[in-house]
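Quick illustration for those who missed Monday's session on complexes.
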Amino acid sequence: MNTLSEYGFTDRIRGLFSFTFPSALPLPGHPALEPARAIRADRGRVLLITNHGPLQVETDGTVVTGDWVALARNNDDDGAVPPAVVGILPRYSTLQRKKAHDPLSEAQVLGANIDLVGVVVPIDRPLSANRLERTLVAAWDSGAVPLVILTKADLSSRFDAVVSQTVERARGVEVFTTSAEAGDGLDALHVRIGAGSTLALIGPSGAGKSTLINALVGFHAQDTGEVRAGDGKGRHTTTARELIPLGSGSVLMDTPGVRGFALWDAEDGLEAVFGDIEELFLHCRFTDCAHGSEPGCAVQTALGTGELEERRWLSYGKMQRELASLHRRQSIAEQRRHGRSFHRTAKEAAMAKDFRNRFREG
Ligand SMILES: Nc1nc2c(ncn2[C@@H]2O[C@H](COP(=O)(O)OP(=O)(O)OP(=O)(O)O)[C@@H](O)[C@H]2O)c(=O)[nH]1
Ligand SMILES: [Mg+2]
Ligand SMILES: [Zn+2]
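Prediction with guanosine-5'-triphosphate bound:
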């Protein structure tokens, strides 16, 4: 039977749990709160792993895959009150993106309490530098440490070129090369993951995330799907984010392939990936330089000498504008919310005054 320790319940989480939910030490007449981890979340329904095995509970939809929660169970065994999640442990990392096509600009939390984010890049397709950068921005921003994992090494004859190109693009992020087919690179990943930590794999459909998970755990834990013959794209085989224990308390998170990665409040991630560009700004002659045609612009100089790649500069600018427009929409939504509550209270106050006046008159 799977237990919590197989899902990353380390001493650190145990300590955090009893600190956050002191009532985990039962009081007479009160049910004890148990620690549990969400290993799959499907809107209001969450599959938890507890020290007594898996348990499905209904929740309000705020629990996401990877969350550590406090579970209250009825001790009387009469089953009158169903077990319930009564609290979520503060998340030490949160992988999120902006919901696609969402006018309200809401965040979609992909996973919580992840230690490592493996950005999966299949070697058999052309490498999209913009996509890699964007995903690394989100990965850094989550609070976890990103890794780049090249998959399907057995399929490329340009192997060395792709690896060195990826290392250059990843700019200091560790790059692992794997072939689930040939079993290459698995040991190095095992060592890097280490005991008690959680590695989430993200990347496009058909990149080989589930296949890599099966190779790492050594059995068929996740379904995999053939890629389309024409363009090599995947068929969206994995449909839910799910935790799979790897042994020695390490955990893998499989995720459905995503096409794009719209950013959500990712300034810190942007700085982590494009720190060199933000550093250049300090060397422009004018502090309010717009990095266009101003004299003494360090960005333009770096573009001119080739020190800064034009593509990277454009990619950075695009993400900056995306975040600026997100913040504009967020503040408009915020103002609307306040405006509405102001109108409501003003109207209520007027009605109350009207009522008092009539009462006095009467
Ligand atoms: N030759 C070779 N094929 C691989 C390797 N890894 C994955 N594949 C193949 O790539 C296809 C897609 O693999 P999946 O693991 O389903 O991809 P995924 O990233 O989980 O895709 P989604 O669940 O749709 O997001 C399958 O046909 C795998 O057999 C590898 O190392 N070598
Ligand atoms: Mg999959
Ligand atoms: Zn400038």
